[in-house]
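User: Here's a protein and a ligand (nicotinamide-adenine-dinucleotide). What would the complex look like?
Assistant: Let me lay out the input and then the predicted complex.
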Amino acid sequence: MSNSTYDGRAVINGQRVWAQTGHTFDCISPVDGRLLAQVSRCAQADVDAAVAAARIAFEDRRWSGMAPAARKRVMIKFADQLLAHADELALMETLDMGKPIKYSRAVDVNSAANCLRWYGEAVDKIYDEIAPTAATALALITREPMGVVGVIVPWNYPMIMAAWKIAPALAAGNSVVLKPSEKSPLTALRLAELALEAGLPPGVFNVVPGFGPEAGSPLALHMDVDCIAFTGSTRVGKQIHVMAGQSNLKRAWTELGGKSPNIVFADCPDLDKAVAASVGSIFFNQGESCNAPSRLFVEASIREAFLERALALMPSYAPGNPLDAATVMGAIVDETQLNNVMRYIGLGQSEGACLLAGGQQVMPVAGGCYVQPTLFAGVTADMAIAREEIFGPVLSVMSFTDTAEVVKAANQSVYGLQAAVWTRDINKAHGVARALRAGTVHVNQYDEDDITVPFGGYKQSGVGRDKSLHAFDKYTETKTTWIRIDSPV
Ligand code: NAD
């Protein structure tokens, strides 16, 4: 049994349970190294039990058979439950993965609740179709839930990443088995409890914490899982597609890594705004955002002015105690990720980039994992810090003189998640936005975001889109039903 702060037991068929092996793993806070929970170390047998519970729940139609309006009411209560426990969830998220408490509360809890509410609200407003066939037949085109949906998520926005998948999957009538990241399992477990309290029937939403190869792979390989929705690294995402193919050809959707280019032209409408957004967006969430604009291309004629302003902003992103309401840069999720970020900072220096700010590990709270926001200039396309996703607060600055050249450089990436262009020339804005190979292109801002718009990437940034009504496509099958009409008149 656990003697730590939080309950780390899995949620299977509406019950809090330890792993069948009895094995646990320690959930350590990156804020100060404290033990937060001993967590069920789920493996094949636990995943099997969760999938079986989800399957039974789906087949007996305790959720899938409810009218959309009834599912809507439960989803909205579920969202309300998050808001009613907002302070608790925000503290848990901050302690578990290190992000500043003000963002956990204002961004993570609110976005996750909004997502659950939005899909709940949507589900009784979507109509099916009748095809324009000949009068001798009626062809119904209907959407049906897929069945059991497996969800695997990363640690950077644990609640939001889970909500983006479970909200449309549940609203559409599926049962879900969620495997949160081993680095941040706590809020997912609490969400499952809150869902039960909101009236979601037991077995419909199960959470199996554990490590990727032990709990994630059995889910992706499971013969009775109909769909696997994954957010995480491109490396593991590729394995997810292989596992789907190796097993039952389950539908596989992947939201993967990014190395998003941010192009600032000399004619950008407001240089101060461009600098503030560029710096703020790469350092938000400690740089641990898939869509962080980590490759900055500045037109050569404004390079010095841009860098001067950017450097002036760096001290305001100094890491602080994430539990302090004023802190904007918190802890890196764990020591492994911290070492990874430090390795890239070392690589940047050894490959000849110019370290203009940061680069040091710091310790605003004893025992925690912190690194200074870091700015490299003089970066070239061949350097590791220009090509690889660091997933930390490291900005790589390059300069350019020609539009075609910068678009080519921006597109020279295996990723294609997001991109930005800053210019007051409407032709250039549209032309460049069209030419950029990315799922989302921002023009003269980087912070617009809404549940109503699709989110996902081109190329190796993944397959499929989260958010918006398009996400329902991932969790429903399309059925055609032909009905003969032998006209009596
Ligand atoms: P990761 O790929 O290491 O892990 C993600 C999840 O997959 C975790 O739950 C992990 O336990 C699980 N996993 C690991 N190995 C597995 C295996 N063999 N089989 C099944 N599951 C396995 O990624 P991470 O370090 O947790 O997250 C960071 C990555 O996530 C970054 O690349 C980031 O860009 C990406 N990300 C993408 C988006 C997006 O929407 N595109 C959003 C957030 C994060």
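Summary: The mean pLDDT is 97.
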